[in-house]
């Protein structure tokens, strides 16, 4: 439950702090980001998780983040079994991490078999020095 007395770090805006914390229905819509949903990580869910780490030159990091975001908004989120994508950029500018959740391994494999998916992956790969994908299951979530 949301604790109104909890201090927001001075380096973070109220909306930024709130978007990093899931308080369910305790917050009104005015405190949530307008067009963004909050991804949920649940060890009890039967989701498949893809963690994809792209190593990039710092001058290519923003472009890769933009392209991953655009592809997610326009194509990926409309695929059967899509659950969520969270895109992270390292503070040193050398990595982009794509944390994706799919409802099942079958949904993910079906998405990966599509020729248009393979073409998009080639475009992402062209911006990266290396790509390290790993398929995972969530074993535990620890949060406050």
General description of the model:
The chain folds into 2 domains: 10-39, no CATH class; 48-136, 2-Layer Sandwich (Alpha-Beta Plaits). It is built from 4 helices and 4 strands, in the order αβαββααβ. The chain has a 4-stranded antiparallel sheet. It has 144 residues and is an alpha+beta fold.
Structural class: alpha+beta
Strand order of the largest sheet: 2-3-1-4
Distance between the termini: 10 Å
CATH class of the largest domain: Alpha Beta
N-to-C SSE string, H for helix and E for strand: HEHEEHHE
- Overall domain count: 2
Throw out a few tags for this protein:
alpha+beta; 4-stranded antiparallel beta sheet; 144 residues; Alpha-Beta Plaits; 4 strands; disordered N terminus; 2 domains; 22% strand
Short characterization:
The protein is α+β, with helices and mostly antiparallel strands. The protein has helices at residues 14-19, 58-74, 105-113, 115-126; strands at 48-55, 82-89, 95-102, 130-136. It folds into 2 domains: 10-39, no CATH class; 48-136, Alpha-Beta Plaits, CATH 3.30.70.
